[in-house]
Amino acid sequence: MLAGLLTDIATDLPTTVPRAGMLTSAFALGMVVGAPVMAVATRRLPPRAALSTFLAAFIAMHVIGATTTSYPVLFASRVLAAFANAGFLALTLAMVAALVTPDRLSRAVATILAGTTLALVLGVPAGTLVGALLGWRAALWGVALLSVPALVAVTIAAPATQGRREAGSLTTEFAVLRRRPLFRVLALCVLVNGATFCSFTYLAPVVTERAKLQTAMVPVVLALFGLGALAGVWAAGRFGDRYATRLVPLSGAALLVGWCLFALLAQYPITVIVLAFVQGGLSFALGSTLVSRVMRNSAGAPTMSGAFATAGLNIGAATGPALGGLVYGSALGAVGPLAASAVLLAIALVVAVLLT
User: CB within 8 A of 259, min separation 6: which ones?
Assistant: First the structure.
């Protein structure tokens, strides 16, 4: 959500736009560390208690972020909120993987990730709009308030017992991470998601500085990216179980071409509008497919599999915006993150070949 509010945050605290962009990396970094830490800490707790605790902490961190005047405090609140978010997602993915048959895993994972994708469709542009009208703090207050009914729902409806989520030996579960097929898919998750969030975090400067569109178009472009992402997740859920081996190389190659075209033609408004949708769709179709493959390859780690998938995605989400900030501050300017995304996709295709 903060991707569309970087300039306002930088002006208010005060700090620089690239440093404000690091708040996105801070959240992703908290997800990376928080996923395995929270999975270990709560692996023997009832799901209802664990999920409720995660949501309560998430709410508290957004209240702190909305009221602070200190960049370090805001940064810390993003990391801790991410710990809660990571625990929530890791536990949810592990639970859903235990409840479905292998031939329906992609569809089940896509259903869960559709919630995250809907946040791009609705939350990011809505947060940007609220931030533009009422200030960036109002956007954080909005997240805290919207999470309250979610907390109530989880407290009432989440499973009160472990069910089919059996906690085994941690030594055995972590040994799964060393398997070559899982390492390959995790590496692809890092690179693909890094490319996605490298450019997504800096779409607002692309819209206003490169395409010369009005600031009011920023929420529109972010929403188009989110709509494309939702379509991509749907496609991954619909076809991922049958055509995963084809989806990965084809969507990866298409993504590489798309990021190259985006970087070369970002000065044209129609290019920004069309490719925001297309790249959102391809990025999340490939990302969702890779998450499903992580879950398949870590079947021997029933309580840590969700943490593996969450960490893989968010290593990319942490490094991508950081890389985007570096190239954005260079001579390339707003085009830099788009070019960096193309480079990351090229590396991903090489990794896919070399580690096959």
Answer: 195, 199, 279, 338, 339, 341, 342, 345
